Design the sequence.
């Protein structure tokens, strides 16, 4: 029986380790002539090579993934820790070792995603862990590249210093989020989606209007609506009202088009059934057609959650009071405080994902009967 | 005749209502400023004259449709194309980066989709991040990307095109994943019985099946990449392009210029979407597709 099952990632990681040993010291000597990594080099190599070796034995998938996970991340952590203070001195072996660690992480993800489990919790956890490792490696490679190559801070700060910046300027970030998201985005989103929904119901009652509105709505969703931002700033002033207006216009049409499409989604059979029950228009609307349209409506709500954030931030480029995410981004770029810009972007990304996630969760709860929810 | 009754009449009616409403709003919104002007000049014009004046202000709050149309016509057809004021010149600048970004984005989207369909690891690890990447208000990063790339020495078309790429790869990737997975199990089994290799299955079954999906998502993508190009021009210091034109007009509150730049952007968007649609129909027909 064969005890060995080689994987190309592990073999390649092993070869990269050998190459890094062959090509000299990991980083250049500092001014005092001291080479970094002298103490940890053996440990890093042993971690990567060991994890690669162990992973090729026939062991259970969980154990293999665990060994690979620990080996890859400990090695990456040691490498990044080692470069701290001597940024920009890394040589080829540094990148070779990072690449080897990354290959192990890849193998780990591959092993994890091939695991089939019966239990629901386990497969749910796997579905969270796999993308998390992937995301973590984007940050690790970013950190290693910026620190290793000594990329100037104003070009691309490493993620760790962005994190420090976020922690240090929480009050400013909170004020910006309050101004942009809680005032402009939420208000505009609610009004825009509400108006789109109501007009869609109206268009549904009047077929003439529906025939006219649908092509226009489809056409408008292709237009660069974001361009009305300067006009809205001119009309409604610098404060959040103008941003909310941009958000309203941007969210209105997707909502309108999707709701009108959704209202036509219920089948003839069901509608005939409602007819035989002698239900009037509103009963049919509330008991059959709106529930049937729910997936479409939620689709629009999800699209709009991103659009709203974009609209509010871009509108702030055209003039705002001295607070707000778009304002902070455009001024801090001018002042070369790039870490603050990235901090703001990270917060915006987090807010956007949360917004989207909340809408998606509500969707799961509200359209629990839909095949796409039941199946997953 | 059905087409006339079902589509053209309602659409034109609604458009006509919109134009009338636009005129009404123009009068209402411009009235306060005009009253102010008249009071200072000591004039008391009649109603008709007053309305006429509100529609012909030099920097109105809301320009009337004919002012925008005149400005658009002048700046499009009467100016030399090389002139800095020609909208065709600005549209061309925006269009070139839009198209470059769109091409990058489409290729990237297709490559990602092929990877996701064929490699389980990528499907599990990349797909959630692709969706998450679109919840990031990327346009907020636009100024960053441009400043950073300018510092590295990359200026001009590429930075703007990169923003377009980012915005346009997503619809293509998602649509292509759907399209590449659209062949039914029966068809895949048939390929299996033919002893087809994975690459044969890909080129002869999955790829043709995904073409309708590809063009539908490309329509969305081309509109998105135009938005990316316009926003990408905002922080570049307003040199050329529709976005730059918008920003310059906003600084000097030349509302008519602003509106005609918007119209130019809309025309470009409509042309792009229609062009993609025509290419799509042509490709589908030449591949032997029948209208559904």
Sequence:
């Amino acid at each position: 029986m064969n005890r060995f099952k080689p994987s190309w990632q592990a073999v390649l990681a092993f070869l990269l380790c050998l190459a890094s040993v062959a090509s000299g010291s990991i980083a250049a000597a500092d001014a005092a002539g001291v080479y970094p990594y002298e103490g940890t080099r053996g440990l890093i190599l042993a971690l990567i090579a060991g994890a690669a070796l162990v992973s090729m034995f026939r062991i259970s998938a969980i154990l293999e993934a665990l060994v690979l996970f620990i080996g890859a991340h400990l090695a990456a952590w040691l490498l990044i820790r080692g470069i701290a203070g001597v940024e920009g001195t890394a040589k080829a072996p540094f990148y070779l070792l990072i690449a080897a660690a990354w290959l192990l992480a890849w193998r780990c993800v591959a092993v994890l995603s091939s695991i089939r489990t019966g239990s629901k919790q386990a497969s749910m956890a796997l579905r969270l862990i796999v993308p998390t490792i992937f995301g973590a490696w984007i940050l690790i490679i970013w950190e290693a590249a910026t620190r290793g190559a000594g990329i100037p801070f104003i070009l691309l700060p490493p993620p760790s210093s962005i994190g420090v910046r976020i922690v240090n300027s929480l009050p400013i970030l909170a004020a910006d989020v309050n101004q942009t998201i809680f005032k402009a985005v939420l208000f505009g989103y609610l009004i825009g989606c509400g108006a789109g929904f109501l007009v869609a119901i109206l268009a549904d009652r009047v077929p003439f209007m529906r025939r006219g509105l649908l092509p226009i709505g489809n056409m408008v969703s292709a237009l660069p609506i974001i361009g009305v931002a300067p006009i809205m700033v001119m009309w409604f002033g610098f404060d959040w009202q103008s941003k909310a207006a941009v958000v309203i216009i941007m969210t209105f049409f997707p909502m309108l088009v999707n709701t009108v499409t959704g209202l036509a989604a219920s089948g003839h059979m069901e509608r005939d059934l409602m007819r035989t029950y002698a239900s009037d228009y509103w009963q049919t609307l509330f008991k059959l057609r709106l529930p049937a349209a729910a997936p479409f409506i939620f689709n629009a709500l999800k699209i709009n959650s991103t659009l709203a954030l974009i609209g509010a931030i871009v509108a702030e480029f055209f003039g705002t009071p001295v607070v707000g995410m778009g304002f902070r981004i455009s001024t801090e770029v001018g002042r070369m405080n790039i870490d603050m810009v990235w901090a703001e972007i990270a917060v915006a990304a987090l807010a956007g994902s949360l917004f989207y996630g909340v809408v998606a969760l509500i969707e799961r709860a509200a359209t629990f009967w839909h095949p796409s929810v039941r199946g997953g | 005749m059905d087409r006339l009754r079902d589509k053209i009449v309602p659409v034109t009616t609604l458009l006509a209502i919109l134009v009338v409403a636009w005129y009404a709003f123009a009068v209402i919104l411009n009235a306060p400023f005009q009253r102010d002007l008249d009071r200072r000049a000591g004039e008391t014009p009649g109603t008709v004259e007053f309305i006429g004046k509100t529609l012909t202000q030099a920097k109105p709050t809301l320009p009337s449709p004919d002012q925008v149309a005149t400005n658009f016509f002048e700046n499009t057809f009467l100016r030399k194309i090389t002139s800095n004021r020609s909208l065709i010149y600005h549209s061309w600048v925006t269009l070139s980066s839009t198209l470059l970004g769109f091409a990058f984005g489409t290729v990237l989207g297709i490559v990602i989709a092929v990877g996701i369909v064929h490699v389980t690891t990528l499907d599990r690890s990349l797909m959630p991040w692709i969706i998450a990447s679109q919840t990031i208000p990327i346009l907020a990063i636009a100024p960053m990307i441009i400043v950073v790339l300018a510092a590295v020495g990359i200026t001009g078309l590429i930075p703007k095109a990169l923003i377009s790429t980012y915005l346009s790869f997503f619809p293509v990737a998602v649509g292509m994943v759907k399209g590449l997975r659209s062949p039914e199990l029966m068809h895949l089994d048939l390929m299996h019985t033919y002893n087809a290799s994975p690459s044969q299955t890909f080129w002869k079954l999955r790829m043709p099946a995904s073409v309708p999906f590809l063009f539908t998502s490309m329509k969305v993508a081309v509109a998105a990449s135009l938005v990316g190009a316009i926003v990408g021009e905002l922080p570049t210091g307003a040199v050329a392009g529709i976005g730059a034109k918008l920003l310059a007009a906003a600084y000097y509150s030349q509302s008519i210029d602003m509106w005609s730049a918007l119209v130019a952007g809309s025309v470009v968007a409509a042309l792009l979407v229609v062009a993609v649609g025509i290419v799509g129909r042509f490709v589908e027909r030449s591949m032997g597709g029948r209208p559904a």
User: Anything to note?
Assistant: The radius of gyration of chain A is 27 Å.
